[in-house]
Amino acid sequence: MEMVDLYVGPNKVHFSVHKELLCNKIPYFDKMFKGTFQEAAVNSATFPEDLPETFDLLVEWVYSGTIRPLTMIPGPDPQQPSAYRLSYPCTQFYSLADKICMPELIDLIMSRFHQVWREWRFLPSLNSITETYSTTSEDSPMRRFMCMSYYYMASHGHEEHWPAESVSRALLEIDGLAADLIRLTRQTKGAVYHPSQISACNFHCHDKTAPCALRGNEMPVGFAAAPGYFGGSGHSFGVGIQVNMW
User: Fold this and answer.
1) 196 & 139 share domain
2) Domain count within the chain
């Protein structure tokens, strides 16, 4: 079978993938390798700005239809929550899926991402929020999750881990965050909830009037937000919560 060569990152890490499988799975690559682009003539493409780790996850999804579970792994000092990190670069993987316009994959990544915060009750770092806002589209559901995380962090975060100076600086420096925060504050009428209290489906990009293909794959949690706290009628997605996300 015909193969294509993908070279990723500044060191050009090599991935060899079956052409038909890749093109049938992802229209972005179908246009690249079956159109009039130079890549089609040589069956090769270079992605210098992407991470090899994210392409490893992408290729895994192409062949298996799923992605590995996401968890937290300890850093040098397991006693410090901030020392923990995600087992793979999930936000960068999300940005890659967003770039190649794969909503099915985007929703799967978001479910994995949401699940880890449900289990660990941690929050994304300010660096993760910054990176998400710099690499995703304005209407990205991941931005909604990050904005809600920031909202919770600003009101409930401990000064030791989330210094007020750093949190306030992020609001000034992250383009789009302030406007999103105003929308969220208006919609919640000032109520603040940990984003893991919201069903993952609310952070998916599929049509909310259609059944969620991933619904029911999440682990239950021992708490639920008050019904209708977002205001308006919205849509109902699990655990009795009605939301009206922007």
Assistant:
1) yes
2) 2
